[in-house]
Amino acid sequence: MTQTIKRPPATGAWREGDPVGGRAWFTADTGLTLESGAVLPGYQLAYESWGTLAAGGSNAVLIEHALTADSHVAGPAGPGHPLPGWWDGLIGAGRVLDPARWFIVAANVLGGCQGSTGPASPAPDNRAWGSRFPQLTIRDQVSAEAALADALGIQTWALVLGGSMGGMRALEWAVGQPDRVAALAVVAAPARSSADQIAWSWPQIRAILDDPGWHGGDYHHLPDGAGPHLGLGIARRIAHITYRGEAELCERFDREPQNGENPLQGGRYAIESYLDHHAEKLVHRFDAASYVTLARSMDSHDVGRGRGGLTAALRRVRANTVVAGVDSDRLYPLAQQAEIAAGIPDAAPPHVINSPYGHDAFLLETDQIAAALGPLLQ
After folding, report:
1. How far apart are CA 132 and CA 74, in angstroms?
2. N or C: which end of the chain has fewer CB within 10 A?
């Protein structure tokens, strides 16, 4: 298997080893055999790194992103980065993940749309994969990341951490490749997606598939502006309700009308405007086919599949482990983090993040997350 790492030319803004991060691309030119039995003939992962890898790779940390995030964990928005870093409060001088000590890596997930191979990427015939892109699982995505680790010379991660979908991949790393994970942090994620979570996912997927702009998944070659944007916006509205706490939404918006609008005359409530705003932001930066691909990979998540069940699978973990959950999370409730912690040998009960913000607290409560990570990094 031929593997290559491509970095942009050094500039005044970034040089290898600088703590401000740098984007690069890993390419594997031979097939990745997927859980489904299909073979993805070569792929690319975009990734960013902060700090310098120590001799022997002993200081490497892998951060796994959530559904619509990407490799840009820290730093300002810019070319290739439509948003500022989503966990900016964890990386930097004096922070829990200080690039002066750690070599931090974050890869855009396989199936994504921010530099990694996904449905919008060119297939071997140079047309977008579209409907031909194979279905992926969380395990498939971790297999691709393992090849990246090999190319970087990292045999064992000092720490693998992630929240939400990223927590699924972090846990899959520790279960599937226990010798390669020294410490593990799973935040606001389950050991397996439940029927309730798959149920929330399905209307999001259907909204995209039923949009006339979907064209069976083959819309990427159409003129700019074509695509299932209405369906993606609806999907985001549904998802965002599950991301926030009920009490927070009620206190923040109550039944107030949107400024200048009257719901009794066809206008919107403030909460409706809020959901519209988040839908519009996502539609302008994310590919609908990647959303479907990644949502389906989350539905597939079950570390016990083919491993003798969940109990046997969690016993495979050898990493020093912290599991954290949010007390107001209605998407991945604390009971699921308790299940993970109870099943991993020597893991403590879940660290509880106290927050009104629901599932999104894993992005917002960085001080509490840093406090949970501290013991793992001593």
Report:
1. 33
2. C
In the set 140, 302, 359, 360, the catalytic residue is 359
Query: What is the Cα–Cα distance from 123 to 110, expressed in whole angstroms?
Result: 14
Catalytic residue status for 329: yes
Domain made up of 3-193+302-377: CATH architecture: 3-Layer(aba) Sandwich (3.40)
Its pTM surpasses 0.85 = yes
Q: Is 220 designated active site?
A: no
Residue of 164, 201, 290, 328 marked catalytic? 164
Which of 7-11, 26-30, 174-178 is the least confident region? Answer: 7-11
Collapsing DSSP states into helix, strand and coil, what is residue 69?
coil
pLDDT digits 0-9 by tens, 251-303 = 999 999 999 999 999 999 999 999 999 999 999 899 999 999 999 999 999 99
Token pair in block for residue 328 = 């107001």
Closest CA to 82 of 235, 281, 360, 220: 281
Query: Choosing from 211, 299, 302, 329, which is the catalytic residue?
Result: 329
Summarised one tens digit per residue, pLDDT across range 148-158 is 999 999 999 99
From the centroid of its chain, how far is CA 277? 21
* 3-class DSSP state of 199: helix
Helix (H) or strand (E) holding 296: helix 288-299
Instruction: Write the DSSP symbol of residue 181.
Output: B
Please give the class, per CATH, of domain 197-298.
Answer: mainly alpha
